[in-house]
Design brief:
This protein is mainly alpha-helical. It has seven helices and five strands, in the order αββαααβββααα. α2 (53-70) packs across α3, α3 runs antiparallel to α4 (95-103) and α6 packs antiparallel against α7.
């Protein structure tokens, strides 16, 4: 049996976040940042290709949470309560999820650079903040799945940009069809994503 509850797609310690903030904290502002390129597979690279946010918003924030909001409140939180209680060994309070269900939407504001931007390391291309008091926990809860979904996409895109530079160099040479550069990089980007997914 596969559990696809959007509320479960987080690091387990984040279950505590709904109770962790001081009562006077009403807003949590977070960012998504590529810290360094020391593990990059692209030598001497100082930028990351920022892509994947629209995919994340549509597939996770909209489609996966739609099931949560479409279900009745008891059903929406039942699996979460059962699994987290078994995992952590104490009765898990899901009042924060019930409040979210009552609200009927994810109270988040996401700001981002345009997708396709080459962003220097240590510069956040995305910021996220909760828009309603009482939902401070939500800002960092989505960070887990945002990272899991977007790092592979950005790594593939950054690698593709590096290969595109090499292809363009060769395109300046005689006998190399310049018009095929972009097509070859697109095929490569798909293959890199596919291989990284299969390795998981």
């Amino acid at each position: 049996m596969t559990i696809t509850a959007a509320s479960m797609q987080k690091d387990v310690y984040k279950e505590f976040h709904s109770r962790a903030y001081h009562p006077e904290v009403t807003e949590v502002y977070a960012n998504f940042t590529s810290r360094s390129g020391k593990l990059s597979n692209v030598a001497n690279n100082d930028k990351v290709a920022f892509v994947g946010l629209q995919y994340f918003i549509k597939s996770y924030l909209q489609e996966e949470w739609q099931d949560f909001f479409a279900a009745d409140k008891h059903t929406a939180v039942a699996n979460h309560r059962r699994i987290m209680t078994a995992m952590l060994g104490y009765p898990v309070d899901v009042g924060y999820l019930e409040a979210l269900h009552d609200l009927g939407y994810l109270p988040l504001r996401i700001k981002a650079l345009p997708e396709g931007t080459l962003v220097p390391y240590q510069v956040p291309p995305i910021t996220v903040v909760n828009t309603k008091p009482g939902f401070e926990w939500l800002t960092n809860m989505i960070e887990t799945v945002l990272s899991c979904e977007n790092w592979p996409i950005q790594t593939s895109a950054t690698t593709s940009v590096a290969y595109l530079k090499v292809f363009r160099e060769f395109a300046q040479k005689p006998a190399y069809p310049r018009r095929s550069c972009r097509f070859r990089v697109m095929i490569l980007a798909f293959a890199v994503c596919l291989v990284s997914t299969l390795r998981l």
